[in-house]
Design brief:
- It is a single chain.
- The protein is built from 6 helices and 7 strands, in the order βαβαββαββαβαα.
- The chain has 194 residues and is α/β, with parallel strands linked by helices.
- Strands 1, 2, 3, 4, 5, 6 and 7 form a 7-stranded mixed sheet that branches.
- Helix 3 packs across helix 4.
């Protein structure tokens, strides 16, 4: 691969996922405003932010391919953000108990003369959770930096009844199946580069 690859993200989860593809890449913070537009649906917000992040970094590196991604948890059309502290995580999990949340993951690839973006939804059904179960979970895995207050790649899987997705890493924040397709379309095949 001769064109540099940059991940426009500060997320350690996205960095760890991209490492699975064995492609050399660098990471750069995109410095984009993530404020939702008035009336903006969670899916539209996720896709817009993914593209904005990739475009912001691509403007600084016009010869590179830049990956942008953003995720918005969608509960009946309302965005559910990262809780930030245990009290908000407890309240968030209590609200999600027995409900289905759609994690809308936007993905963008911007490079020389090209840009593509798409949306990868993941439906997550939370089981009915008692206050005690929520407290135990958060004591063991304080997922305050995750929308939905649960890490499906960790103990948070025990909070769920089902996950429905065509791209399972989308739930963690970077849909690798979709990204692989976009990279191949751009002439970058992870199997050839590894």
């Amino acid at each position: 691969m001769t064109v540099p690859l940059i991940l426009a993200s500060t997320s350690r989860y996205r960095r760890e996922l991209l490492e699975r593809l064995h492609l050399p890449f660098t990471v750069q913070a995109p410095h984009t405003d993530e404020t939702p537009l008035p009336g903006e649906a969670p899916a539209a917000l996720a896709q817009r932010l993914a593209l904005a992040k990739a475009q912001a970094v691509a403007a600084l590196h016009p010869t590179a391919w830049v990956i942008g991604s953003d995720q918005v948890a969608d509960l009946d059309g309302e965005p559910i953000g990262k809780p930030g502290d245990i009290a908000r995580a407890q309240a968030q999990l209590a609200r999600l108990s027995g409900r289905t949340v759609v994690f809308q993951t936007g993905l963008a690839l911007v490079g020389p003369g090209s840009q593509r973006s798409l949306l990868v939804p993941v439906r997550v059904r939370f089981r009915t959770l008692s206050s005690a179960a929520i407290a135990r979970y958060l004591a063991l895995e304080p997922a305050i930096d995750c929308a939905g207050s649960a890490k499906s790649e960790g103990l948070g899987i025990a909070l769920l009844d089902a996950i429905e997705s065509d791209d399972p890493t989308a739930l963690i924040g970077l849909p690798l199946i979709a990204l692989g397709r976009l990279l191949r379309e751009a002439g970058i095949d992870p199997l050839d580069a590894a």
